[in-house]
Amino acid sequence: LLTPGEMFGISFAINALLASLSLPVVYLICSDLFDRKSGVLAVIIMLCSPVFFLLAGTYFPHTASGFFILLLILSVVRIEKDMGWLYSFLSAISILFILLIRPTEGGVLFVALLLYMGYIIFKSDNRTEKILRILPIFAGFGLGVIILLSVNFLQTGNAYEFAFIKYRSVEKWGFGNVRH
């Protein structure tokens, strides 16, 4: 996501933009699940969070992955409510970006989504339609895995080895044992 920012000389603004776009997404999720007042309250709570502002001003991937997780939640909620195919494609794009930004987070989220998608299909009257609406999520995840493995292969010569493991062997998943 920083590449378009670098191309236009505004890489510093990418997380701030995604944080700003998270606000209407949170409002829509809460409005869909509860009511408009809940949506407004959720946005106010986000605006009162210092973490929200601090991460929006950094290059850390938390803001971007958070935005795409919120977009995925909104899409799945709207898929469940039969609100159109646009949300099927938004969910595919969201899971793809989550997987590319933070691979472990994307994998864990996908496993959790499998359970919820099974529930959506099981409770639906028109199961075939729901399966068709959910298929793009699998396509987005599959494409994300292919891109991730390809990038790993190009960087390290091994599709299953991340560059940070090969070139900074002291770095580990999570915080590792390096000086942070």
What does this structure look like?
The protein has 9 helices and no strands. With 180 residues, the protein is an all-alpha fold. The radius of gyration is 18 Å and the shape is globular.
Q: What's the total helix number?
A: 9
* Alpha-carbon Rg, integer: 18 Å
- Residues in helix, %: over 70%
Following the backbone from N to C, one meets helices and strands in this order, namely HHHHHHHHH
Query: Could you describe the largest sheet, including whether it forms a barrel?
Result: none
List the SSEs and their pairings.
Layout (H helix, E strand, L loop, with lengths): L1 H6 L6 H20 L2 H12 L2 H7 L5 H19 L5 H16 L1 H21 L3 H30 L6 H5 L13
Helix pairs in contact: 2-3, 2-4, 2-5, 5-6, 6-7, 6-8, 7-8
Brief summary of the model shown:
This protein is mainly α and 180 residues long. Helices cover 76% and strands 0% of the residues. The radius of gyration is 18 Å and the shape is globular.
List its traits.
180 residues; mainly alpha; single chain
